[in-house]
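Data availability (excerpt). The following record was deposited with the supplementary files.
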Amino acid sequence: MPTSITAATRPRGFARLGAFAVRRRVPILVLALLFVVVSAVLGGGVVSRLSSGGFDDPGSDSAKAAAALADRFDAGPSDVVLVVGSAEGASVDSPAVATAADALAQRLAQEPGVRDVSSYWATRAPAMRSTDGSLALVTARLVESGDAAQTRAGALAEELAGPTPDGVLEVHVSGAPVVFHEVGHTIEKDLARAESIAIPITMLLLLLVFGTLVASGLPAVIGAVAVLGSFFALWVTTQVTDVSIFAINLVTALGIGLGIDYALFMVTRFREQLGRGDEPHEAVVRTVASAGRTVVYSGITVAIALSALLVFPQFFLRSFAYAGIATVTFAVLAAVLVLPALLAVLGTRVNRFRVLRGATEVADHGFWYRLSAFVMKRPWPILIGGVALLFALGLPFFRVSFGQTDDRVLPKTAQAAQAGQLLRTEFDARESDPLSVVAADSTASAAEVAAYAESLSRLDGVTRVDASTGSYADGAQVAPAGPASTRFVAADGPGTWLSVVVDVEPYSGEGKQLVQDLRAVPSPLGTTYVGGDAAVFADSQDAMGSRLPWAIGIIAIATFVLLFLFTGSVVLPLKALVLNMLSLSATFGAMVWIFQEGHLSQWLGDFTVTGELDTSMPILMFCIAFGLSMDYEVFLLSRIKEEYDRTGDNTHAVQMGLQRTGRLVTSAAALMAIVFIAFATSGVTIIKMLGIGVALAVLVDATLVRGLLVPAFMRVAGDANWWAPAPLRRLYDRFGLRESDDVVDLPDADPVAVG
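Predicted structure:
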C-alpha cells in the first residue's frame, strides 16, 4: 500500500533529492542499468587506448631538443637495443659469434618499421662492447613513435629475445618503447590478479560488516556505476588527450573502495532511521538529507585532492586526476540517486538473509564510546604520544632520494629488466642512451663546434662527444670527422647537434647534475637545448618541484574552505590539515624504508631496490591518501557536529560521533585497504608502492588518527573547536552547509507517494 510524506515535513535541500529518488525510483534504476551497459560496451576496450609513458614535461627544454632532433636531423635515441652474447660464453670477437651477429643485425634491418640499424660488429665502437668482451650491442630506431612504437617494439622483443634459431647467440632486448610495452602488458595481468584476490575477500568481509546478504550486495551497485562509468569517461578522454595506463588501477581500487564507503554510510543511516520508527520512504529521504549530504561533501574533498594533479604537465599524473575525478563523481551520483532508489524499492527487505546477528545494530555506548571516553580522560599524553609516533615513523623520509621510472620497475625475471641490468653493469658507457645537445638554427663555424665539443668532453661523467667535426674525449679530439659525421648537420639549412655519451645512470642525482653541468657550459652555437633521458629526468624533477607548492596550496585552501562551510569552525579545518599531514608523513617514511632502502623486499615480490623513489609517487600518494583521509574526516565531523548542534556538549558530541562512525570508518578503511593492498601483488614496483602506500595511509588515519588523536585534540580544545572570527561566523550563517536547511517543517507539504 502506498505511503507518503505528508503534513509534518516538506523536503528541501538534500531531502528534496531523496524525495526525488523515492518518487522516480524505477526510472532512475532503469537509466542506471542502461548507463552501466553502455559504459561496459564502450569503455570496456579503454585499456587498448591507454599509454605507458607520460613521465616527461612536454614543454621542457629536453622535449624541445627531442622534437628538433627528430624534425631537423631525422635523429633520435635508439628505440630497440639488442644485448647480444654467445650462448656458449665465447667472445663477441670470435668469428662464429661475429657471423651470427651480422646475420641478426641484417634480420633486424629487414623488419618492417625498423631503420638506422647499427652494431658493434659493423662499427667496432669500443663503447658498444662490454668490459669483459662477452656482450655487444645492436641498436635500431623505429619509424613510428608513441603507442605505435611501443606495440612494434613489443612485437620485436617477443620475436628476437632469447636464443637465436641457430643456437649461437643469446639475445636480450631493451629500449624505452620495449620497457613501456612490457610495463603495460604486466599491468593488465596484474589488474586481473589483484581483482581476483580483492573481490572475493571483500565480498566475504562485506557479509560480516553488513550482516545481511541483501545489504552486502549494495556496494557492488555503486562500484559498478563508478568503475564502468569511469572506464567510459577515460575512453572519451583518450579521444582528445593521452591517458596513462597506470590510471586504470586507481579506477578499480577507488571505485570499489568508495562503493563500499558510501554504501556503508548510507545503508547504516537508513537502518538507523528504520530503527527509530521511520517508514521506509521517510528513512530514505532522511538518509539522503544526512548521510547523502555528507557523501556529497566528502566526495568533493576527494575530487579536490585529486584535481590538484592537473597542475602538473606530465600526463602520467594528470591521468590520475582524470580517472579519480570521474570515479568519485560517478560514485557520489550512484550513492545519492541510484542507491536511495534501490533502498526505496527494498524497504525493510534490506535486512533479509541475515548471516551475522548484531551487525545491523549500533549501540549508544559501545566500544568506540568507551574508547573516546578513555582518550578524553587523558588527552595530553595520548595527543603528544601519537604525534611523536607519527613524527618518528616519518623520519626516514628525510633520507629520500628521488629517481624516475625505468626498466627496474619490472620484475627481475622480465627480459627487458634483465637487458637493462646488463647495460647498466656490463658496459662502461651508455652508448645506446646518449645525451643530445641540439642547436637547430646554429650557423657556427667548424672551429666553434670543435671548441664546444672539447669543453663538453671535459665534464665529469662524459665519456665521449661526437660532433660534425669528429669525436672528443677529455678535452681533446680522438677521431677525425668521417662519413657518419654528416648526420650531425641539418641537410636543408643551418643547424647542428652533438651526441654526448655518458657513464652515469640517467634517472639519478648524478644524471641530473651532469645535465646541469652541460647546460652551464657557454654555447657558441646560439640557442641550445639538451635532451636525452637524463635531461628528461632533470626537467621532470624541476617541473614537479615548481608546481608542488601550487598543488598543496590548492588542496589546503579548498579543503579548509569546504570544512569551514561544513562546520562553521576555523579550528577543525586546521586540525584536519595538520593531522593529515602527520599521518601522510608516516606513510612516506615507510615508503623510503621499504622501497628505497629495500626492507621487506623479500616479502613483497623481491622487487629491484634502486636506492631511489620515483618522484611522482609521493605526489600521487599524497593526493589520493589525503583525499581519502578527508573523506573519513567529513563523515566523523558530520556526526559530531550533528550531536553538538543538538546538545551543545562538545565532549558528549565527540563520544557519540565516534560511536556512530567508529565502526563504519574502521570497516570502510579496512575494506579500502584490502582493495589497494591487492596491488602489492603487482610485478610493477610503482603500482606495488601505490597500493601499499595508500593502504597504510588509510589504516593509520582510520585507527590512530580518528580513534585517538582526533578525540584527544577535540577534548583539549573544548568549545574552541567550534570557534570562528565574527566575520567568518556571519559568512557561515549565510552560506554554511547545515543539515537543518535540508528539511523544514511546514504544515502543507506536498506528498511523496511511495509504493
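Summary of structural features: Confidence is low (pLDDT under 50) at residues 1-8, 744-755.
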